[in-house]
Amino acid sequence: MINLRDVTFMIPLKMESEDRKKVINLVIEYVLKHLDTKIIICEEGVSPKFSQLMKREWYPKLTYIFRKNENELFHKTKNLNLMARKATTPIIVSLDSDVIFYPHQYQNAAHLIRGNIVDFCYPFNQPTHNIPMSFQSKFGMTLNLTSLEPILKFEHPSPPPGGCFFMNKDKFIKAGMENENFISWGPEDVERRDRLIKLGYRVASSDGKLFHLEHSRTFNSNTTNPLFSNNEQEYQKILNMSQDQLKQYIGTWQWTK
Prior knowledge:
Layout: E1 2-13, H1 18-34, E2 35-45, E3 62-68, H2 76-86, E4 91-95, E5 99-100, H3 103-114, E6 120-122, E7 128-131, H4 133-142, E8 153-154, E9 164-168, H5 169-174, H6 188-198, E10 203-205, E11 210-213, H7 228-239, H8 243-250
Parallel strand pairs: 1-2, 1-4, 2-3, 6-10, 7-11
Antiparallel strand pairs: 4-9, 5-11, 6-9, 7-8
Helix pairs in contact: 6-7
């Protein structure tokens, strides 16, 4: 087991379908099998659902938060900021509830931040492999990617700007944290990356692949999000700012106070 006791994985969660339950269970089981680390789950919804899945053996390592919200639009950025404030480790990780990596990839990304080589790091730099729902039960029996990888297909031709992002907690807070003006899907991940680079932080990727656990999708997972246009306008506004303008804008964000 890899020692990542100075790392907290933050997983924002909205249980919109039955297959989401299976996927989040696989992600937690996989992380806790391979890593000695901490996890915070922040579930958003009308009523708690993840609490029904909690296993006794998870309690020493996992903190669960439920944030009641009757709006169907998932406020991922707000949930991540809530977890970041609660985390007590110097390294925090924004981890989507449907992605996993080879164990050494988590270790390498944490090492780069721990050694002050970079400020923020993606634990992958290669295209995404998709793990179909039909393969997930078999994978759950071993939680081993090595035998599964040869039969998987690429889901995307290039690495995504999100999925998993290791962060120096202090620098993340100084940079404004997540931009809560983004609600539901897109393009909050690429905005965070581009904002950090514009502010002068060191953002890098370590070598490796991303594995995505397939699940059904709603408007919180694609461009049918009714606020997608608003999100895109926010991203374009930040792209067009100078560094000084961006710092002034971040100073107006109420969630940073």
